[in-house]
């Protein structure tokens, strides 16, 4: 682990974007001491193009269908034309159940969906979807989807909403089938088969022209127990791996909430989930990895290992675009980079605060990983957490374009 990450394996433009974003986020560090090294890194990057052979061999970079998927709650930011051009899918979140069917669209829902669909006038390939559920938003899913009538009624309401607003599909975010999720929400062993039946009913009702995806927990218990992968994946377009919150609000020990790779102290990671799905023959092109446009902060974390893998109490979540202000308001944070997990974190010794999050470099590494592994794409929760200028979506877009350019030049 080191205080500052390595920037040698991405292109010059991406290096500049990463360095600019990182410096803006961590102004409290001693910039003057690092400036010469950073400048030299950028200069050398211009000569060597900052690419390692192992990260330019994937064919996905040259494909137009590498997905960049934004979950979007309709607050407070509005997706502008530039951002829309960087995305392939926008998933409006969330709708819920009202009886056996989707709840009636609220004025906010209607306005948001209408606006999002209007973006297709200038970006005709952009797909606009909506999501069912979310954390705490699927209280009645286990009951409703346990019956054939419930599944049929739901599928018809999905088609009706999609036709009304000219939407392209649905994302199922049931947290969780079969295993415990939100407190006091029903779950049962038969959820596993019922989820398969739900996917089958949706595909039968919607046909092949609509997109159907689902948000899957990125942790081992979900992947091993919750769904019948072999039966549902032939019917689905993507699985969106929620490879964040791997340490969450109930965790009493700190860790990386959205690491790329596993460590000796933390097994669950993006790579761990991808390897599991590969082992059960889920097509790589249907796997979309997740990233987090927010931090998780723990308090009462002792000064050992810079707060990493220590006891603590979850304090709060902070959007990425508010991190600079948060760190400034709580002066004393030091930035660290875990070279094994490929993940940043920060620790405040005086206040015993620990923060885990994605930043520009970890996002660049995740995007490069997805491209190298020929995965379906990358998604993030959630759009309004990003900076509008020099944000994390800009990093994703730059890495995607860099890889495409590199592949085409070969």
What are the SSEs and their pairings?
Elements: H1 12-25, H2 31-48, E1 67-72, H3 81-86, E2 89-95, E3 97-98, E4 101-102, H4 107-118, E5 127-133, H5 141-144, H6 148-165, E6 169-173, H7 191-206, E7 211-217, H8 220-225, H9 229-232, E8 238-242, H10 270-279, E9 287-292, E10 294-299, E11 313-319, H11 323-329, E12 333-338, E13 343-348, E14 353-356, H12 360-372, E15 377-381, H13 392-408
Parallel strand pairs: 1-2, 1-15, 2-5, 5-6, 6-7, 7-8, 8-9, 9-15
Antiparallel strand pairs: 3-4, 10-11, 10-14, 12-13, 13-14
Helix pairs in contact: 1-2, 1-13, 6-7, 12-13
Structure description:
With 410 residues, the protein is of the alpha/beta class. The chain has a domain at 61-293 and 361-408: Glycosidases (TIM Barrel), CATH 3.20.20. 35% of the residues lie in helices and 20% in strands. The protein has an eight-stranded parallel β-barrel, surrounded by four helices. A five-stranded antiparallel beta sheet has the order 11-10-14-13-12, covered by helices on one side. The protein has a two-stranded antiparallel ribbon with strand order 3-4. Strand 6 (169-173), helix 7 and strand 7 form a beta-alpha-beta unit. The chain is globular and about 55 Å long. The model is unreliable at 26-64 (pLDDT under 50).
Residue fraction in strands: 15-25%
> What order do the helices and strands follow?
HHEHEEEHEHHEHEHHEHEEEHEEEHEH
CATH superfamily of the domain at 61-293 and 361-408: Glycosidases
Q: How many strands, what sense, and barrel or not for the largest sheet?
A: 8 strands, parallel, barrel
What is the tally of helical segments?
13
| Overall outline | globular
Number of strands: 15
CATH fold assignment of the domain at 61-293 and 361-408: TIM Barrel
| CATH level-two architecture of the domain at 61-293 and 361-408 | Alpha-Beta Barrel
- According to CATH, what is the class of the domain at 61-293 and 361-408? Alpha Beta
Flag low-confidence runs: 26-64
Instruction: Quote the average pLDDT.
Output: 88
Helix content: 25-40%
Tell me the structural class.
alpha/beta
Radius of gyration (CA) equals 21 Å
Distance between the termini: 34 Å
- Strand order in the largest sheet: 1-2-5-6-7-8-9-15
């Amino acid at each position: 682990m080191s205080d500052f990450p390595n920037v040698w394996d991405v292109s010059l433009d991406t290096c500049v974007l990463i360095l600019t974003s990182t410096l803006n986020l961590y102004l409290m560090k001693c910039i003057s001491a690092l400036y010469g090294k950073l400048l030299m890194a950028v200069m050398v990057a211009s000569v060597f193009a900052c690419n390692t052979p192992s990260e330019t061999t994937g064919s996905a970079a040259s494909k137009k269908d590498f997905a960049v998927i934004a979950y979007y709650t309709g607050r407070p930011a509005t997706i502008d034309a530039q951002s829309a051009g960087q995305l392939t899918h926008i998933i409006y979140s969330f709708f819920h159940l009202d009886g056996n069917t989707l709840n009636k669209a609220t004025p906010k829902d209607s306005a948001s969906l209408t606006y999002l669909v209007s973006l297709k006038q200038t970006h005709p390939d952009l797909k606009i979807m909506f999501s069912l559920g979310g954390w705490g938003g699927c209280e009645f899913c286990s009951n409703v989807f346990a019956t054939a009538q419930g599944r049929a009624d739901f599928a018809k309401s999905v088609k009706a909403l999609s036709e009304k607003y000219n939407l392209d599909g649905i994302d199922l975010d049931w947290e969780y089938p079969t295993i415990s999720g939100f407190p006091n929400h029903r779950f049962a062993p038969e959820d596993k088969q019922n989820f398969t039946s739900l996917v089958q009913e949706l595909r039968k009702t919607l046909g092949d022209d609509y997109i159907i995806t689902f948000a899957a927990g990125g942790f081992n218990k979900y992947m091993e127990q919750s769904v019948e992968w072999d039966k549902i994946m032939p019917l689905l377009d993507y699985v969106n791996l929620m490879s964040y919150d791997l340490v969450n609000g109930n965790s009493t020990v700190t860790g990386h909430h959205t690491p790329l790779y596993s460590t000796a102290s933390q097994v669950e990671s993006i790579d761990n989930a991808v390897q599991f799905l590969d082992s059960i023959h889920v097509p790589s092109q249907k796997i979309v990895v997740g990233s987090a446009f927010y931090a998780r902060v723990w308090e009462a974390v002792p000064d050992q290992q810079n707060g990493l893998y220590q006891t603590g109490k979850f304090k709060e979540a902070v959007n990425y675009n508010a991190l600079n202000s948060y760190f400034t308001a709580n002066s004393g944070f030091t930035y660290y980079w875990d070279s094994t997990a490929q993940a940043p974190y920060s620790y405040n010794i005086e206040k015993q605060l620990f923060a885990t999050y994605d930043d520009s470099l970890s996002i660049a590494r995740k995007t490069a990983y997805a491209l190298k592994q020929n995965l379906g794409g990358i998604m993030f929760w959630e759009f309004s957490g990003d900076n509008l200028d020099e944000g994390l979506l800009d990093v994703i877009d730059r890495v995607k374009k860099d890889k495409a350019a590199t592949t085409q030049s070969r």
